[in-house]
Amino acid sequence: MSKSELRNHYRRERELTYIPGSWLHILASAEFNGVARIASYLSYGTEPDTAELNRTILAKGIDLVIPAMQSDKSLLWYSWNGEISSLKKKGKIYEPSDGTPIDPASIDVVIVPTLHANRSGFRLGQGGGSYDRALTQIHGWKIGLIYSGELTAEELPIESHDQKLDAVATPEMIVRFTAKNS
Q1: Which of 63, 73, 156, 180 lies 20 to 30 A from 36 at CA?
Q2: Euclidean distance between CA atoms 112 and 47, whole angstroms
């Protein structure tokens, strides 16, 4: 199947099997110890819910940054204080409406929206390649959020711009693909 066909298949599958969960357990992992800046996203629909995770990151006093998509589909990252009123709605998602973009190289951990992943650490996202391009600029630990059953042993179609994750997390566990660099 093509990437587009797989996305449609996995979206339908997710809608049929969607069960809300929590990903707070990832914050207790070693890769989150002592970090100053975490990039996350504002989930929508049946994506793994990041609201509780984002609130907890902010409550710990960690700088939380979220993306805003530019007209060329690149991502800029902005610090966010958790106030929905400071965001604008763009399509299905909320994005920062003002501020100064931060340097993506200063991000210690990035939480990546992931539709499906394989055991090699490659992910299938929503399409467009925005996150894959952004991940090339982020040197921090990269973890995708998925539901149980969305990690596959099957190969996914990989293109030259696709970036590997360091790990994925389900509501039950974290699966690491590479060791954290010290």
Answers
A1: 73
A2: 11
The model carries a pTM of: 0.92
Rounded average pLDDT over 116-130: 88
Tokens of 25: 């357990």
Which pLDDT belongs to residue 158? 84
- Interatomic CA distance for residues 61 and 122, integer angstroms: 31
Cα 107 to Cα 125: distance, rounded to the nearest angstrom: 20
pLDDT tens for 68-122 read: 999 999 999 999 999 998 999 988 889 998 889 999 999 999 999 999 999 999 9
Kindly list the domain boundaries of the chain, sorted by start residue: 3-120+133-175
CATH class of 3-120+133-175: alpha beta
Question: CA 80 → CA 31, 55, 155, 157, distances in Å?
Answer: 21, 11, 36, 34
* Whether pLDDT at 178 is above 60: yes
